[in-house]
Amino acid sequence: MNVNKEDLIWSGRYLDHEGLRYFDYSASGFCFVMKGRRAETVILSDPEAWNEANKAVLGIFITEGSNTSIAAIPEEPTSRVTLTERENHIVLFDSPVEKTVTVRVMKFSECAFGYAGLKSLEIDGELEPAATSVPEALEGPGQKAETLKLEFIGDSITCGYGIEGLWEKDTFTTQQERPDKAYAFLTAKALGADLQLCSWSGIGLISNYVDPETIMLPDTHWLMQANWPYTDKSLSLRLGLEPEVWDASRYQPDIVVIHLGTNDISWVRGMEERRLEYVAQLRHLIEAVHRRSPRAKICCCLGIMGEALNASVKEAVELFKKDFPAVTAKAVLFSQQLEADGIGADWHPSPVTHKKAAELLSAALRSF
């Protein structure tokens, strides 16, 4: 049975082009419930554009039953696949006996590197209805529990960069990226929420990461303000297309979390005029988020890899609230990671640090 892509359950942003559906952002992908023996897919990628350290990586999760909630995803994938070919033929599920299973394909690597595009999916069996379980929906008095929708706008921390690597031992590879072990995904999992990530390693609001010791100019070639409004700007440019503006009606978040500033710290360097520019740009982004998702609550976070701009995040939120007093917005500030909790590749947070951040953030969002 050839499965139509429209019959799948999709997570994250995706871009349709020439019959393919590309899913590139961290933790994006698709899932389905089937009763049968086998499922096989063909996923396209661009391995020739990347060295071995930067090819696209997928996680495959197979669970018995029909629960497609994010809360039902296990901690470890059933298998992991690196997309080393232009056309990757992948057996997702293979069983000698008929079973009812939920199959989930998740992009582990971020969209800054190799892409992934669904070409086809065939199953030996039938699609089954999905059953979702929402264990901890945020609900008010008299409200029916519904699946919460979260959107995260962030950098490498949100991507799950370096989680499976070790500081002073490993340098970054896409094999180490685990968005499902990062604070954003863990927060959504704790709340039984859907999520969408728009995240890119090294990205900032006034400057991407620059070496404070050797670089005397900001890196402004790919800031989040020029990336977030589009479905998948990087992929569109690679395909020779004009970037498609993201259609907000396709996913209407209840809460948008902005986690940006870690890379800006490398340029601000304690200089007040640069700090004020960061505050202004964050405040502008908060307003842009509000105008695109007027019913959403907004939460701004920072601090895991440096607290130098934590107070500035709070300042930007307060400036926004002065102009938009009816909008629910707040800052949730993290403490800098501890070596005792482990440090990942390139001094990025470990699974322990991400869990701590997720506990703090999920508690804050419950009380939003």
Question: How would you sum up this structure, described in words?
Answer:
This protein is of the alpha/beta class and 368 residues long. It is 20% helix and 26% strand. The protein has helices at residues 156-159, 183-191, 233-238, 265-268, 272-292, 310-323, 351-366; strands at residues 9-11, 15-17, 20-22, 29-44, 57-64, 79-82, 87-107, 117-127, 149-154, 194-199, 255-259, 297-302, 329-333. Strands 1, 2, 3, 4, 5, 6, 7 and 8 form an 8-stranded antiparallel β-sheet that branches. The model is unreliable at 135-144 (pLDDT under 50).
The coarse overall form would be: globular
Q: Roughly how much helix do the residues carry, as a percent range?
A: 10-25%
What order do the SSEs take from the amino end to the carboxyl end, as H and E? EEEEEEEEEHHEHEHHEHEH
Task: Name the poorly predicted regions.
Answer: 135-144
Measured by DSSP, the beta-strand proportion falls in: 25-35%
**Average residue-wise pLDDT:** 95
Rg is 20 Å
Instruction: Quickly count the helices.
Output: 7
| Count of DSSP strands | 13
Biggest sheet layout? 8 strands, antiparallel
**SS class:** alpha/beta
Distance between the termini: 45 Å
